[in-house]
Amino acid sequence: MKTSTAINESSEKITEKNPAENKNILLNFVSKADGLNIKQQTSDYVIIEQNEDRSFLKVFFNNISCITFSKKEQGECYIQLNFINNTKCILTNGLIGFAPIKSILLDKNSLPEIVSSIDLLNIIEAFEDSLRNSGESEDFLFLSQVYHSVLNGGKNIGIEWNFHIPHFHSLGLSSQVLN
Fold first, then answer.
1. Are residues 102 and 150 in contact, defined by beta-carbon separation less than 8 angstroms?
2. What does the alpha-carbon distance between residue 167 and residue 34 come to, in Å, rounded to a whole number?
3. Is the pLDDT of residue 71 over 90?
4. Which stretch of DSSP H or E encloses residue 75?
5. pTM, to two decimals
6. 71, 10 in Cβ contact below 8 A?
């Protein structure tokens, strides 16, 4: 059963009860995306790879509760996958986006609503820059919280990184700084 309800002028909410229809919508979108590709596909799931850093997401079609298609004012289209466990992600032409896990130690405006694995790489670079420059423990504490928020947000939806995720000790941080 397919239900369509207008959200606004530039998006349409498509609720699919049938996993086969969810599968077709998802595969059609990914096949047209320049920066995403299908790494593996079965009748039950698809593994979507993000070309920029080779991160990937395994999506089981039965776990999709709703797919929302949207178009930004600039013309870029994206889809939002809502899963039955109340998590969600966004697929754009080139990125897999997800919500970072909120931290009580971070100001609510410290993180955007949607991040990607590219943000995780940028945080790692910021750690390295901070080590070379200031070495302030406040910087490490803040970056540690941001890092874990992004890392755990990706893990929450099932992102797998195809690059080394360092432990902070490998970046030269002591346990006193991180705790």
1. no
2. 32
3. no
4. none
5. 0.79
6. yes
